[in-house]
Structure formats: structure tokens, C-alpha cells
Amino acid sequence: SVITESASGTAWTMFLNTLTPKFYVALTGTSSLISGLILIFEWWYFRKYGTSFIEQVSVSHLRPLLGGVDSSTPSTSNTSNGEADSNRQSVSECKVWRNPLNLFRGGEYNRYTWVTGREPLTYYDMNLSAQDHQTFFTCDSDHLRPADAIMQKAWRERNPQARISAAHEEKTTTIMEGEGLFKEGLEGGQHNEDTNVLVYIKRRLAMCSRKLGRTREAVKMMRDLMKEFPLLSMFNIHENLLESLLELQNYADVQAVLAKYDDISLPKSATICYTAALLKARAVSDKFSPEAASRRGLSTAEMNAVEAIHRAVEFNPHVPKYLLEMKSLILPPEHILKRGDSEAIAYAFFHLQHWKRVEGALNLLHCTWEGTFRMIPYPLEKGHLFYPYPICTETADRELLPTVFHEVSVYPKKELPFFILFTAGLCSFTAMLALLTHQFPELMGVFAKAFLSTLFAPLNFIMEKVESILPSSLWHQLTRI
């Protein structure tokens, strides 16, 4: 045993001593070349298919052998292509919509400014509101009436105090005071033939009731308003109704509203898509476990929930980070851009509590939402269930959101896979070693010998222990083999 140990140690020392600096130069140069070729191939494959070749092979061939199931990429064989066709919009035009759940200027937005010193609304957003007011509530003869002329001037004012001075607009500091003024306006305008004014006041009164905790009363007011004015869909009162019904945890009525408005022929919104996902998740989230799903696969109900989450995330990919509290919320703007960061803020601001109330819903979202981006065809400009994501959303969101204290969320680009980053690091490291070895062969040879000796020291230690335990005759036979 002693002779064998001495012989192995001598052979190892002789091997290291026979290696010349040229060997280390050739070794590091070859390693750098091979890792560079792998990096070039990986980068080309990623640019073409949107994933790492090594990662795809490991997921597609090795994971099934180990019994794993990718729970985040369910089958989409039952997906209707009709919905994708019906929701196609022009990507060259980003239409800004009024936020159905916008806050109250005096009782909420202005109070935020007084407390923090920050302006929650951008001038662009407020200017859009002024244009909305002048479009809906004015006519050509308004200049003949002093009161209407004053209101037009007030809407155009940028400073809150100037607006209040001009027409006492936004004078109320609480929701109760605002409700009182709306009631006065409704009583004084009962004989007003302007439908837009009546709908606006009644809708805001319903929102006052919702904010003051009279949710059932708010639901009744909204239902009556939708029944009385069924053609005024531009106000999107059904989104206010959905939020109020979720607060009451009346999920059956929520499903009934969705059945009417989540239709192929109607435009989608984050509220519709994510509420549908929440209802599907509610059926399975309390018992969902990613480990169990990985072992046994997804059940039909779980598959439906995951597909609903993927659908919602593809429509607006910014929402999950707010629901999962990975990004801070701010006050929602008065206007939103569908599928943009502004819509995500407006949705999450009111609906985060409803997701938290459903046990396990956020956990299911956390486990599955990123799988959406592996399902969307690459490049990312293509779509899957909806029309390709508009490229103009970032520009519009920067106009709608206060970028001074909020970082605008950009459409989640596909991040570089780990194997590309690892190969790039390996290539750079070996290239640097090759350069140093070429410039300082003797010194690098010493470092290489010391590194190899240190690297193989644990192996030599184990070999020594094995040699001391095993009989010398058996060890001699093993070494011969």
C-alpha cells in the first residue's frame, strides 16, 4: 500500500512537471475558442427561437426522465382563435380611455398633494379630463350662459387653487362633502335633458356610496344605471360593478357580469381578464401546490385556472408585479392606456385586496404568470391569444403617469437565459486566461500547477483513506483494472 501510494504521488508530480507553458497556452486558448463557439450558437438560437438551446434540451428531454412536469406551460389546444381575431387593434394607435375607477379630485387627489407635496396627476392626464368635460357637458351655446362659461374656464385651469377660485371646483375635501354636492346637482338637474350629465352624476354618487362602505347600495345604483342607460357603454360602469361585487364576495353575480361582458365581440380590459382569472383560480388555489402539480401534473380545473392567468398576463403583463407587491403602487390616473402600466396601476389599486382575500390565489399567480412569456411566439412582437403587444404603450404611459416618483413599467422583455450568461462569463474568463498565459507563460504555469494541486488535494486525501482501509491485494487489483 505504501509503495502504491508513493508511486501514484510520484506519477502525479511527474505529470505536472512535464507540462510546458505551451500546453497551458494551448489549453486556455482551446477552452476560450470552444466556449466562444457555444456562446455564438446559443445567442443565435436565442435570437431566433427566444430560448436557450441547452435549457430547452434539458427541459424537454431530461426533466421528463426525472419525472418533472412544467406546470406553467399548459396545453392550449382548446384555445379559440376567434378571440384573437376579434381583439385585433391597430398597433400604430394607442387609444387612451377614461379610468372607470378614477378617484375624486378634492377628496382624494388633492388631499394626497396636501400631505405629500407631490402631484399625483400629470398635466397631460388633467388636460384629457378637461377635454372630456368640455366634450360631454358643453355645447355651442354655453358661452351665452355665464355659469357654463365659468366652468369652461375652470376646466382649463392647471392649478387646483385657480380652478377652485374660478368655480369652486374640487372644493370638497372629503367623500361625504362630494356626495352632498352631487346630490344637490342631481336634484337641481332632474329636468335636465343632458343624459351625459345625469349618468355622470349618478355614477359618481354610486362611487361615493362604495367608498363610504355602503357597497350594496352602490351595487343597486350601478345596476339601475346600466338598466336605464344600456347604450352608454363608454362609461364602463360594469367595471365599477365588478369591483363592488367582489367586495361583497358575491362571486356568482361576478360570473354573471363576466358572462355578459367577457365576450369575443367586446373589447377586453385588465379588470375583465384578471377577474376571470381570479374566479378560475378561486376554485383550486386553496389546495394548489407546485410540488404536487409537478409530480402528478395539472388537473383540469388547475389547467383552466393557469390558462386564464396566462390569458390575463398576455393582455396586460404589468399587473402581476403590482399584485405580488414586487412594485409599489401609486394613485391611479384619471385616464389609462389599455394593456399599459397605467391600466395595471388602476386595476391593482382596487383589486389587490380581492386577490388577497382568495386563499392561495396570489401563490398560484406567483407560480404561473411568468410561464406566459414562454408560450407567446417569438419574437415578442407576435401574439398568442391577443393581437401583438402595442409598441407605443411606454411613451403614452410616461405622459399619463408621474415619472418623478414612479418608474414606468415597460413590457417584460425576454431575459437572457442563464446558460447564455454562464457561457459568456466562461468565454470571457478563459479568453483572459489565454491572454495572460500567452504573455506570462512561466508565471501562469506556476499558478496552474498550484491550482491543480489544490483542486486535486481532496481527491488525493480520499484516495489515501481508501488505500488505508482496503487490503493491499484488493487495492492492487483495482489499480490494475
TrEMBL record:
Decide whether keyword Membrane is in the record: yes
Cellular component GO terms, alphabetically? membrane
Q: Which family does it belong to?
A: Belongs to the ST7 family.
Q: Which residues cross the membrane?
A: 23-46, 416-437
Q: What name does this protein carry?
A: Suppression of tumorigenicity 7
Going by the UniProt record, its keywords in alphabetical order are: Membrane, Transmembrane, Transmembrane helix
Organism listed in the record: Gasterosteus aculeatus aculeatus (three-spined stickleback)
Biased segments, Low complexity type: 71-81
Region annotated Disordered, chain positions:
70-91
State whether keyword Transmembrane applies. yes
List the membrane topology term(s).
Multi-pass membrane protein
Q: Where in the cell is it found?
A: Membrane
Polar residues composition bias: residue spans:
82-91
Q: Which InterPro entries match?
A: ST7
